From TrEMBL:
<keyword id="KW-0378">Hydrolase</keyword>
<dbReference type="InterPro" id="IPR007484">
    <property type="entry name" value="Peptidase_M28"/>
</dbReference>
<dbReference type="GO" id="GO:0016603">
    <property type="term" value="F:glutaminyl-peptide cyclotransferase activity"/>
</dbReference>
<dbReference type="GO" id="GO:0008270">
    <property type="term" value="F:zinc ion binding"/>
</dbReference>
<keyword id="KW-0479">Metal-binding</keyword>
<dbReference type="InterPro" id="IPR040234">
    <property type="entry name" value="QC/QCL"/>
</dbReference>
<dbReference type="Pfam" id="PF04389">
    <property type="entry name" value="Peptidase_M28"/>
</dbReference>
<keyword id="KW-0012">Acyltransferase</keyword>
<feature type="domain" description="Peptidase M28">
    <location>
        <begin position="122"/>
        <end position="337"/>
    </location>
</feature>
<keyword id="KW-0645">Protease</keyword>
<dbReference type="GO" id="GO:0006508">
    <property type="term" value="P:proteolysis"/>
</dbReference>
<comment type="similarity">
    <text>Belongs to the peptidase M28 family.</text>
</comment>
<keyword id="KW-0808">Transferase</keyword>
<protein>
    <recommendedName>
        <fullName>Peptide hydrolase</fullName>
        <ecNumber>3.4.-.-</ecNumber>
    </recommendedName>
</protein>
<dbReference type="GO" id="GO:0008233">
    <property type="term" value="F:peptidase activity"/>
</dbReference>
<keyword id="KW-0862">Zinc</keyword>
Length: 346
């Protein structure tokens, strides 16, 4: 295993000194408009859409998170229903997302990863989650593992859609310039079918990584953000696991600080001063990021450690999700994507 330090953000600063006055005026007005939109439009978007899409109690037509409140065993009818729901959801968005259904068979099960790309770009930021649920114990829902994160990434897609539709002027130099794009990935088969091990786990992630290797897509991934076990009603800590993504972890932690300050509710999960895992220099948790991390991609693994107490028990249900925690993460991830894309602006 090894780390690749991303130098893009440092070299981009060099262009500022060579700027002509007209470019500088353009830049200042762009930055002002970004600031304006972040503090006004985005806040407004979150206020309107969080309760519509991610309420744990109000089961309206707009709600996306409650659609995952069922078992989602690979190849089952429930799994296919969820896949259909996700695809229909993206198809109804204003912006045209590119869809890739990556289906395959293994160990007598059929699996399907769903990949949605905002555009064809030179570089990508990937946001990933697994939508399958464990076979045992029977009736296992996996609300935080990882139904809640699925809902949050559908929210993110709606948020990005809003940015595309309403803030076109802001993204002309970035997303629409087809330099950096967003991929949202729903993995199937993260859970072991019988017992967790290298040959019985992360079926979807392994398959997609190998497909992306063959298609030379792995080289275009600048950051791989994986969400897992998010949204529990327990107070959790999410450590920084990798030196290569610590810059992004700190960025997210600053967003969390300002979120908690302005909302006066919710609790702090990120601890940027805790460098225990960075010093180890290797991953300590097996998850869907492994094949991508092994390919040298910077991984931001958003997973609580220790795991919440309901982990892999029949009690991992929607009753044990925390509404505020889900709203917090949906807003943080949305604002995070804007900040990351901003790194490509200059
Ligand atoms: Zn699990």
């Amino acid at each position: 295993m090894f780390f690749i330090v991303n130098s893009k953000k440092k070299s981009s600063q060099l262009h500022i000194t060579a700027m002509q006055p007209v470019q500088m005026i353009w830049l200042v007005s762009l930055l002002l408009s970004i600031a304006f939109c972040q503090f006004i439009s985005y806040d407004e978007f979150h206020r309107d859409h969080l309760p519509q899409l991610l309420s744990l109690t109000n089961d309206s037509d707009e709600n996306v998170i409650l659609r995952f409140n069922k078992t989602r065993i690979p190849g089952s009818k429930e799994s296919k229903d969820v896949q259909e729901f996700i695809i229909n959801y993206f198809e109804k968005l204003d912006h045209e997302w590119l869809v890739d259904q990556d289906s395959f068979e293994e160990n007598g099960f059929s699996f399907t990863n769903l990949v949605f790309s905002s555009t064809i770009a030179e570089k990508y930021i990937v946001f990933a989650v697994h939508y399958d649920s464990k076979i045992e114990p029977e009736g296992f829902i996996g609300a935080m593992d990882s139904a809640a994160s699925c809902g949050i990434l559908l929210y993110l897609a709606r948020f990005i859609d809003n940015v595309y539709s309403l803030e076109q002027n802001l993204i002309d130099r970035t997303i629409s310039a087809e330099y950096v794009g967003i991929k949202i990935v729903f993995f199937d088969g993260e859970e072991a079918l019988k017992e967790w091990g290298p040959n019985d786990s992360i079926y979807g992630a392994k398959h997609l990584a190998s497909k992306w290797d063959q298609k030379n897509i792995l080289d275009t991934i600048d950051l791989f953000v994986l969400m897992d076990l998010i949204g529990s009603d327990e107070h959790v800590t999410i450590p920084s696991f990798f030196r290569g993504s610590h810059f992004y972890y700190e960025m997210l932690s600053e967003l969390e600080d300002s979120y908690l300050e302005t909302r006066s509710k919710g609790t702090k999960s990120l601890v940027p001063t805790d460098h225990r895992f960075l010093e180890l220099g290797r991953g300590v948790i097996d998850d869907d990021h492994i094949p991508f991390y092994n390919a040298g991609i910077d991984v931001l693994h958003l997973i609580p450690l220790p795991f919440p107490q309901t982990w892999h028990t029949i009690h991992d249900t929607f009753d044990h999700l925390g509404q505020e925690e889900i709203y917090k993460w949906a807003e943080l991830i949305s604002n995070f994507v804007i900040n990351v894309v901003d790194l490509y602006r200059l």
